Amino acid sequence: MVVIRLARGGSKKRPFYNIVAAHSQNRRDGRFLERVGFYNPVAAGQAEGLRIELDRLEHWVAHGAQMSPTVLRLVKQARAKVAPAA
After folding, report:
1. Model confidence over 4-49: pLDDT tens digits?
2. Which residues contact 47 (CB under 8 A, 6 or more apart)?
3. pLDDT confidence of 81, banded at 50, 70, 90?
4. How far is CA 72 from the centre of its chain?
5. N-term to C-term CA, the chain
6. How far is CA 29 from CA 9, 34, 76, 79, in A?
7. What is the pTM of this model?
8. Which domains can be identified in the chain, with CATH numbers?
9. If you write DSSP's letter for every residue of the chain in order, what string do you get?
């Protein structure tokens, strides 16, 4: 099964997460099928904290991918940001 989840990067006490589509058997930070965005929880100032390619995310969900609870929360947050601008 394909899951859309966070893969941790960055250094100690400076986390950075890639939002990836990966097979559920693969490791958290291991091999993945496609990177669909990123999340930077320590972004400050003008730095971008969250970017998700919603079209690619919808592609994977349409093909049966399951989102992790954290990714689901981030997607709702990203859609709330995009909706008022449109």
Report:
1. 999 999 999 999 999 999 999 999 999 999 999 999 999 998 999 9
2. 40
3. confident
4. 9
5. 34
6. 8, 13, 23, 26
7. 0.91
8. 2-85 (3.30.1320.10)
9. -EEEEEEEEEETTEEEEEEEEEETTS-TTS--SEEEEEE-TT--TT---EEE-HHHHHHHHHTT-EE-HHHHHHHHHHHHHHHHH-
